[in-house]
Amino acid sequence: MGTPRETRQAQAETVVDRLEAEYPDSTISLRYSNRLELLIAVILSAQCTDERVNQETKKLFEKYDGPEDYANAAQDDLAEDLNSITYYNNKAKYIRSACETILEDHDGEVPDTMDELTDLSGVGRKTANVVLQHGHDVVEGIVVDTHVQRLSQRLGLTEEERPERIEEELIEIVPEDYWQQFTHLCIDHGRAVCTARNPDCGDCVLADICPSEKGDSEIDLAAGEPW
C-alpha cells in the first residue's frame, strides 16, 4: 500500500508531475478536423473506445459534410452508418437532433458555452467540456471519463461516485493550468498501467503514493471491493 501525500492537493500535484514526465505527448486521441466533427466524435465515444470511433468517423466524415447533412439524413441511414458503434440508434438520433438545433439556434456553428452545448441532444457536461477545451480553447472544468474516475478514486483524490461531484472535487485540488491535461494523463495511464481489472502496480510510477496499490492494500478504492 502506498502512502499518499499529506493533503489531496499535494497528492494531485504529485500525480500530475509524475504522469506528465511519463506521458509527455499525452493528448486527445479522437480524430477530427473541425468543431462539428469533434462534437460528433465525442458523442459517439460514450461507452465506446476511441479506436473504434476513429475507424467509423473516417468514413462518416467523408460522407457527411456539415450540420445540414446530418440533420437531413434519414434516421435509418445514419444509424446504419454507425452500426458498429455502441448504442448507434440512440447516437444517430442525438446527432440528428443536435445538428437541427445547431442550424436553427446557432447559425450552423457549434456553440461555445457550457449551457448552450448541454442543451444539445446527447451532450452532457463531459462532452461539453471536451468540445469547449479542444474546439474553442475554453477550459472551465475537468473532463471526468471512466479513466479519470477510476484513477482519482484509487489515488485517494476523491471518494465521490458521480462524475459531476468528482469534477467539483478535482477542480479544487488539480492546478488550474492542468485541468485539461489531467484528463489525458489519466487516460493514458489508465490504458497503459492502471487498467480496470488488472492494474500493473509493479510498473506504476504512482505506486508508492497510491492507497490502492496491490502490494499491501486489500481494497481497490475505485471498486470498493477486495483485489
Automatic annotation (TrEMBL):
GO biological process: base-excision repair, AP site formation
Protein name: Endonuclease III
InterPro entries: DNA_glycosylase (IPR011257), Endonuclease3_FeS-loop_motif (IPR003651), HhH-GPD_domain (IPR003265), HhH_base_excis_C (IPR023170), HhH_motif (IPR000445), Nth (IPR005759)
This enzyme's EC code(s): 4.2.99.18
Transmembrane segments: none
Reactions it catalyzes: Hydrolyzes mismatched double-stranded DNA and polynucleotides, releasing free thymine; 2'-deoxyribonucleotide-(2'-deoxyribose 5'-phosphate)-2'-deoxyribonucleotide-DNA = a 3'-end 2'-deoxyribonucleotide-(2,3-dehydro-2,3-deoxyribose 5'-phosphate)-DNA + a 5'-end 5'-phospho-2'-deoxyribonucleoside-DNA + H(+)
Uppermost EC category: lyase
SUPFAM superfamilies: DNA-glycosylase
Binding site for [4Fe-4S] cluster: C194, C201, C204, C210
Database matches in CDD domains: ENDO3c
Entry GO MF terms: 4 iron, 4 sulfur cluster binding; class I DNA-(apurinic or apyrimidinic site) endonuclease activity; DNA binding; G/T mismatch-specific thymine-DNA glycosylase activity; metal ion binding
Biological classification of the source: Archaea, Methanobacteriati, Methanobacteriota, Stenosarchaea group, Halobacteria
Alphabetical list of Pfam families matching this protein: EndIII_4Fe-2S (PF10576), HHH (PF00633), HhH-GPD (PF00730)
Cofactor note: Binds 1 [4Fe-4S] cluster.
Record-annotated HhH-GPD domain positions: 44-192
Reported cofactor(s): [4Fe-4S] cluster
Database matches in NCBIfam families: nth (TIGR01083)
